[in-house]
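Entry for manganese (II) ion complex. Fields follow.
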Amino acid sequence: MKVSETPETRSKDTEVAASASISIDRVLGELSVNYPQADLNLIQQAFDLSRKAHEGQFRESGEPYVVHPVAVAQILAELRMDCVTIAAALLHDVVEDAGIEDRQLRHEFGDEIAFLVEGVTKVSRLVSDSSYEDEQLESFRRLLVATAKDQRTVLIKLADRLHNMRTLQYLSSDKRKLACQSTLDIYAPLAHRMGIGRVKDELEDLALKFLHPDIYRDLKEKVAQKAPERQIIIEQASEVLRKTLQSEDLRFEISKRVKHYYSIYRKMVTTHRSFDEIYDLLALRILTEKDSDCYLILGKVHQLWKPLDGRFKDFISVPKVNGYRSLHTTVVGPRSRLMEIQIRTHDMHNVAENGIAAHWRYKRDQGTTTRVGDDTRWLGQFSQDLLETVSPEEFMDSLKVDLFAEEIVVYTPNSDLIQLPRGSTIVDFAYKIHSEVGDHCRAGKVNGKFVPLSYVIQTGDRVEVITKKEARPSRDWLSFAKTARARNKIRKFLMQVERGELLETGKALLTRELERLRVPVKMLEDPEKMTRVFEDFHLRTLDELYVSVGFGKVLTKHVISRLLPKTQLFQKKQASEATPGMIPIRDIDGYSYRRALCCNPLPGDPIVGFVTKNRGISIHAKECQSLASANVSEARLLPLYWDRGESESFQVEIGVEATDRERLLSDITSVIASTGTNIRGSVARSQDDGTAKLVFMMDVVDVDHVNRVINRLIPIPGVKTVIRRTKPSRQLSDAASTSPKGKRKRTHKKK
Ligand code: MN
C-alpha cells in the first residue's frame, strides 16, 4: 500500500513557450511509452507541416504559433490518445489560420486526419468569442455534427480550448471574459458529459482564476493552509484502514482527493456556506483491482467508521450516463471529521479521469469494441437528438436539459433502470423506453398511483406507462416534455399529421386543375413528364409536390406550366379562345366589371365586354341575345378573353326536369356534391303531370365545371333534361315554373 500525494493529475507544464526550441520530443516520448507500435513518422510529418505552415505567425504571448498545436497535441498525448488524433491536433489550425488546402491534407495525411481537422476548423471559425450567444450556439451545433461522426473531434476541440484557457492572460480582458463564459457554459459541461474529469476540472479552475482572480487566490491560500492538518488525519485514517484490510488478500492504494477550487467555490455560492464549513469534509479515494474488492473494502470502511445516512451511492451497479463508475460513501472518521470516500478500480478511475478518451484507448489497445461501443453510444444519440431540434432556442433549451441537467434514476415495472435528466415527465420516460410507447402513452403510474403525462418523476420512482392504441401525441405535450428526444418525436408526429392533411389538399387542388384543363391526371405519375416539375421546385416525389401545393408554396398553375408545353396549354385552355388583339379580363381589373345578368357567362364561354355609361364594363356571352338586340355600337365593345385567378368561382344555376319519384332530390344533390361542387340553394316543384322541375344554384369555376356536373346528372334515373340557366331567377322559389327567358338555352336531352 502506498499513500500517494498526487492530487488529480494536472499538467503544470504548458509553459512550452519559455523553452525557445520548439520540438515535439515530449509528445513523441509520451506516445512511444503508451504505444510501442506508434507511427512516430506520421507525428513528425504532421509537426513539420504545421511548423512550416505557421511560420511567421505568433500567438498573443509572442511565441511562435506552432507552440499552440504542439501543446494541444501534448494534452491529447497525456490523455493517451492515438496517433491519428495527435497528428490532427498538430494540424488543427493549418487550414483555418495558415491557408493550407483541405485537399493537400487529404492527399498527405488521408481522409481520417483531414476529417478531424475539418471538423475542428469548422467549429473554430465560429468560436471567435466575438458575438457571444448565437455564434457559440452555431459553433456548438457544428461541433456536435462532427462529433456524431467521430468523437475524437470533440476531444481535439476540448484540448484546444484547454490550452487557450491556460494562456488566457495574454488576451484583452473583454476577450478573456467571453472565453471564460463559454468555457463554463459549454466546454466544461461538455468535458463532464464526455466523462473527462481532469479536463473539466482544469477548465473550471482556469475560468475561475480569470473571472475572479481574488476569490481564486483566496481559495488557493486557504486550501494550502489546511493541507498539513488534513494530511495528518488522512494518514491516521489510512493507517487504520490498512491494518483492517491486512488480513484480506487484496491490493489497494489510498490517495487524498483535492477538490478543485471551482467546485469549492460553487458549493459555497450555492449553499451559502463558508469555506470552513465546506472544506471540513475530507476526501479520500481508494483504488483497487477488482469490482468485488470495491464492495469488500466498502464493508470494512463501514465497520470502522459510522456511515452517514443517505450518502451511499453505488455507481458501479448503476453507472452514470457518461460511463462513470465508483462507490461513494460518507463516514464519520477520526477526530469525528466527516470523510467522503470513493472506492473504485483502476479501470474505473481511468474512465473517470479520461472519459471517452479512455474508451478510445481501449478500443485501440485491445481491439475490442463491445464495451466501448455500449458506453459511448449515448454520445451519438445525444448529438442526433440535439441536431434534430428546430430552432436555436429549442436547441439551447435541449442542450441545457440533456447536457447539463443532473440525472435521475427511475425504475420500470420490471425493475430495469432508466436514466433521465432531472425534470423529466412521464412523456419523456415513455419516449425513452420506445417511440411507440411515447406515441401512444395516455397516462402514467408512479409507485402504483395514477398520474398525468405531465407528472415530473423523481429519482427512485417506479414508473409505468399506460398506453392506448388510439392515443396520439398532442401539441400541448410540448409544453412539458423535457428531453430533446421526446420533443423531437412529438414534433415529428405532429408534422406527419399536418403533412397528411396538406397532402390531401394539394392532391385535390392539382387534380381539379388538371381535370379542368382536360389533362389526364395520370400524367402526374409519369416520371419523365414530371422531371422538370421536380427539378424546378427542388422536390423528389409526387407526395412532396402535393404537400408543397397544399401548403401553398407551389401554385398549381406553375406546376401546369411546367407539365404542358405552352402551345398545348393554350389549346387546353379552350376557354380562353384568345386571338391577337384580345384583352385578358385581368387587364381590365382597374375598371369595375361584372358578368351580365342576361347571359351570366362563365369562363369557357366566348365573351365580349360592353362599356356601359356609368356602371363600368359589363361582360356578356358573345352570343347573348340581349346584347345583340340592343344593337350597340362596335366602339363600345371590348374583345375580351377569360384569364382568371386561381380560385375564383362563379354562381350558376342548373335546371333539371325529371319524372318525379322518391328520393329524386337527394339523388341529384348527392351526385352534385360528389363532383366537389358547392350547392348554394335548390328549389323543387312537382307538377300534376308527374314531372318534377328542380333548380340548383351552385358555385363553379368555369364552363367545363358546369358541364361536368350536367354530364353526371343526365344518367340519373328519371332525369329527362338538364339545362344551364343563363339567366338566373330573381327568386328561386319562382324558378321551376318559369321557363328561362334567356333564349340561349342549352338543353341536354337524354338519349
Ligand atoms: Mn487552436
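NOTE: The chain has a mean pLDDT of 79.
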